[in-house]
Specification:
With 247 residues, the protein is of the alpha/beta class. It has a single domain, classed as Response regulator (Rossmann fold), CATH 3.40.50.2300. The chain has 12 helices and 8 strands. The longest helix is centred in the last third of the chain and has 18 residues. The protein is globular. Bound molecules: uridine-5'-diphosphate. The site of uridine-5'-diphosphate (UDP) has 14 residues, from helix 9. Uridine-5'-diphosphate binds next to helix 9.
């Protein structure tokens, strides 16, 4: 049984530790139902305030792991608690380190060649991991038939989708039912870029004091708009609306 979800700006988050999140996903992989796991961060919750479909999607998933430190701070500010930050990249790394041939994996998204490099990095840590296929693809409608056919042919049990938010999760919600073999689909954001070594993660001390955004701003200044929404707009919205969706 998972603990009750907490809410920020009308979007639910699961107050789970990394260990608990992994146990839940492993349980989902054994089950019969199809599950959608999201990795929300500050920007995604801002997006949900003006994107009704996306907010509904967040409310309908099976697990929303709190991917950013800002979520922990804002939870506390609103009298709620998230035990720890649970990132998509750490979750995927730990999950794939323990999977066997019985849980084939498909990596979809990121720039050409990145998913393959991420798969190679995961395979180095776990030679029992079975990656059935990788494909960059895109969330565009005209690419859907090709992707659906590839995934159906590969028949994975775990589907990792890296199209960025909100596209990746809207894509999963639309197409998951087309893949009867898939038990768990996760929107993983920049996870493949990190695993492939294309994007370097912030040093541990910066992550621990919640300054990962500053690291990313220095290394990728073009993200300024997103970082503004994450570190300025998001806290202001939470101060004003707390647990509730702005109306
Ligand atoms: N991406 C993609 N197709 C798109 C948009 C994004 O494959 O149309 C990929 C992008 O290459 C990256 C991932 O989605 O690997 C996540 O992008 P971003 O860095 O924006 O996400 P974040 O990690 O910040 O959630």
């Amino acid at each position: 049984m998972s603990p009750p979800r907490i809410f920020l700006l009308g979007a639910p988050l699961d107050p789970v530790t990394q260990t608990e999140a992994l146990a839940m996903i492993r349980g989902f992989l054994q089950g019969e139902k199809q599950r959608h796991v999201m990795t929300p961060n500050n920007e995604m919750l801002v997006e949900a305030t003006h994107h009704e479909n996306f907010r509904q999607l967040l409310n309908g998933t099976d697990l929303n792991i709190p991917d950013s430190t800002g979520l922990l701070w804002m939870a506390r500010l609103t009298g709620q608690r998230l035990p720890e930050r649970v990132t998509g990249v750490d979750t995927v790394t730990a999950l794939c380190a323990s999977l066997t041939e019985e849980t084939p994996v498909f990596l979809l998204g990121a720039k050409p060649g990145i998913a393959e490099a991420a798969a190679a990095a995961l395979f180095r840590k776990n030679p029992h991991l079975k990656v059935v296929d990788c494909f960059a693809g895109s969330p565009r409608e005209e690419d859907a038939v090709t992707i659906v056919n590839m995934i159906r042919a590969a028949a994975p049990r775990l589907l990792l989708v890296a199209f960025g938010a909100p596209a990746q999760d809207l894509w999963i919600a639309k197409y998951l039912k087309e893949f009867p073999s898939v038990r768990v689909a996760i929107g993983v954001g920049g996870t493949f870029d990190f695993l492939a070594g294309k994007v370097k993660r912030a040093p541990g001390f910066m992550r621990s004091i919640g300054l990962e955004w500053l690291w990313r701003l220095i290394r990728e200044p073009r993200r300024i708009g997103r970082i503004w929404r994450a570190v300025v707009v998001f806290p202001l919205l939470v101060l004003r609306y707390g647990k509730n969706a702005p109306h």
